[in-house]
Design goal:
mainly alpha; 9 helices; 69% helix; 2 strands; two-stranded antiparallel ribbon; 1% strand; 274 residues
């Protein structure tokens, strides 16, 4: 990326597709900041815009999650039945997906869309002062986070008062990772629920370690986005999941029963002697 003065980035030359994503994100944030006069508030408004745009996908993802829970026993049955024949197992799973019009990746789409935005925001905030050629020196969230380009690690040695807001943002970064997962584990049972909880704890520790070196602006984006997700999950997503599960259970109950029939080879009758 080639930084230019007056808050613009030159597009072209040897720039890659990833540079285009960062450039577009920069222009959007700069436009919002022009109205809000605060970079932190611009990031929050960006979260609201993205979350509103992702709402239809989140509803679709929630329905896919609900269907997955209902169809899980059938998945396990196929895996056990063809455990000694991986090729046949894969064929039966694909057949089952097709018959039920189900995609195992359907619940991952919102996350896959948001990850590039987070990485692009990290790239942007890491070099944000250079994009203005030194003309802008303050990238703050009011007086709460005085420098959105600073990391919790870099602020740790600046004293308790200076580092406290960054440590709180980091702590929320970790907690808001585990809360949605623990809430979702209520819909699971047995070993699957235990595995989800253990995975959540491990992921939270990894998030805290990773967040130590992330710009505060990225932490702010994730904290606000995850808070939105938790509220949405409690008041909207759970209702969507419950309704989708009931519909899927009703569909399976009314579906025709398939019976695997194994035909025995008929033995030839002995000819009577004349």
């Amino acid at each position: 990326m080639t930084p230019c003065r007056k808050g613009t980035i030159r597009i072209g030359g040897n720039n890659t597709m990833w540079d285009w994503i960062v450039n577009i994100l920069f222009e959007i944030l700069k436009l919002i900041q022009g109205f809000t006069v605060d970079w932190g508030l611009a990031i929050i408004i960006l979260v609201v815009i993205i979350r509103l745009l992702l709402t239809p996908l989140m509803v679709k993802s929630s329905k896919a999650t609900a269907r997955m829970q209902v169809l899980q026993p059938k998945f396990m049955e196929i895996q056990e039945r063809y455990a000694d024949d991986p090729q046949r197992q894969a064929e039966e799973m694909q057949k089952f997906y097709a018959e039920n019009q189900f995609s195992p990746l359907g619940g991952c789409l919102p996350l896959l869309i948001q990850m590039p935005i987070l990485v692009a925001l990290f790239t942007l905030l890491r070099d944000l002062p250079h994009y203005f050629g030194g003309e802008v020196s303050t990238f703050a969230f009011f007086n709460i986070l005085p420098d959105l380009t600073a990391t919790p690690g870099s602020m740790f040695g600046q004293g308790l008062a200076a580092s406290a807001p960054y440590m709180i943002a980091l702590l929320l970064f970790g907690l808001l990772m585990i809360i949605p997962q623990l809430y979702m584990s209520r819909n699971q049972t047995g070993a699957q629920a235990q595995t989800m909880r253990m995975t959540s704890v491990i992921m939270t520790i990894m998030m805290l370690w990773m967040g130590w070196g992330l710009p505060a602006g990225v932490l702010l984006y994730y904290d606000v986005s995850s808070t939105w997700q938790v509220v949405q999950q409690i008041f909207v997503t759970q209702k969507v999941i419950d309704k989708a599960k009931a519909e899927e259970e009703e569909r399976l109950a009314n579906a025709p029963i398939e019976v695997d029939v194994v035909r025995r080879e008929r033995k030839a009758r002995p000819h009577k002697k004349s």
